Structure prediction request, 103 residues.
Amino acid sequence: MTGSENLAVAVRDHADGAILDIHVQPKASRTEWVGLHGEALKYRISAPPAEGAANDALCAYVAKQFGVAASSVKLLRGHTARRKQVQLRGLSAQCALQILQPS
Prediction:
């Protein structure tokens, strides 16, 4: 798996919380976080990319993964692209990186 120094390229602090750079693979066999894709966190999302279904599924999965309310997850950029920026309000980049670390 990847070390925290590698994951740090995709997670940074923002005034309201952490920003995640994410690469999404929609219509996957299951929804999961799989590691890094370049300088972005790669998520496989089982929902199709139609009518925002994959975006909604991504935000729901990220909220569950990081233990925050769904209302704390906001898609900032990439509504129609595979590359996205997601904000986690109320969670620092350091906390996000700790959650992403393998046990």
Remarks:
- The helical segments are 4-7, 53-66, 93-100.
- The mean pLDDT is 93.
- The first strand starts at residue 11 and ends at 14.
- The chain has one domain: 4-100.
